[in-house]
Amino acid sequence: YAQVKDQVEVRFGTTVQSFEQDEAQGQVTLASGTHETYDLLVGADGIHSHIRALVFGEEAQFYRFLGFNTAAYVLKDVQDLAISRDAFQTLTEPGRQVAIYPVQDGLATFFVYKIKQKLAHYSHTIALSELQRAFGTMNWIVPGLLQRAQDVPDIYFDAVAQIEMPHWSQ
């Protein structure tokens, strides 16, 4: 962004509702109802990409579940945890791993665990339940991390997956 911000208009806080493309340009309709014409539309919106779905079709045709779930959240107050404040630390056991590392505004947590099939839903409530089920018997600082997860408003929780496509542009 820093390299292009003075040459290119970048819009934050909006989404593409729809678009049409010809040989030269794309007509984009934003969520606000605004219509714009662009030379290039880049979808850099993650594994569940709305842009990719608009261009190539539904995610399911490209989605490959890799046999794991992952969760992550940031804790703000971690002064009472007996951990190093300047290192990436991890506890790994067969089929599951917990990691913590310092970030600017606290401590980031990262969980990954093996699962036989993708869950039907990935809600906050299911995340808390799954974390307890998968990591509830681990030691170290894991019990404290799981307890604190109960008060975290935002938990990233999803299947570990890969998007496999024959081509990435149109």
In short:
The protein is an alpha+beta fold. It has helices spanning 50-56, 124-135, 142-149, and strands spanning 16-21, 26-30, 35-38, 63-75, 89-93, 96-103, 106-114, 156-163. α2 (124-135) runs antiparallel to α3 (142-149).
What does this structure look like?
The structure is a single chain. The chain is of the alpha+beta class and 170 residues long. Helices cover 16% and strands 34% of the residues. The protein contains 3 helices and 8 strands, in the order βββαββββααβ. The strands form 2 sheets. Strands 5-6-7-4-8 form a 5-stranded antiparallel beta sheet, covered by helices on one side. Strand 2 and strand 3 form a beta hairpin. Helix 2 (124-135) packs antiparallel against helix 3 (142-149). The radius of gyration is 20 Å and the shape is globular. It starts with 15 loop residues before the first strand and ends in a 7-residue tail after the last strand. The relative contact order is 0.17.
Strand content: 25-35%
Which spans of ≥5 residues are poorly predicted at pLDDT below 50? Answer: none
Strand order of the largest sheet: 5-6-7-4-8
- From the alpha-carbon coordinates, what is the Rg to the nearest angstrom? 20 Å
- Largest pleated sheet: 5 strands, antiparallel
Count of individual beta strands: 8
Question: Would you spell out the secondary-structure blueprint of this structure?
Answer:
Blueprint: E1 16-21, E2 26-30, E3 35-38, H1 50-56, E4 63-75, E5 89-93, E6 96-103, E7 106-114, H2 124-135, H3 142-149, E8 156-163
Antiparallel strand pairs: 1-2, 2-3, 4-7, 4-8, 5-6, 6-7
Helix pairs in contact: 2-3
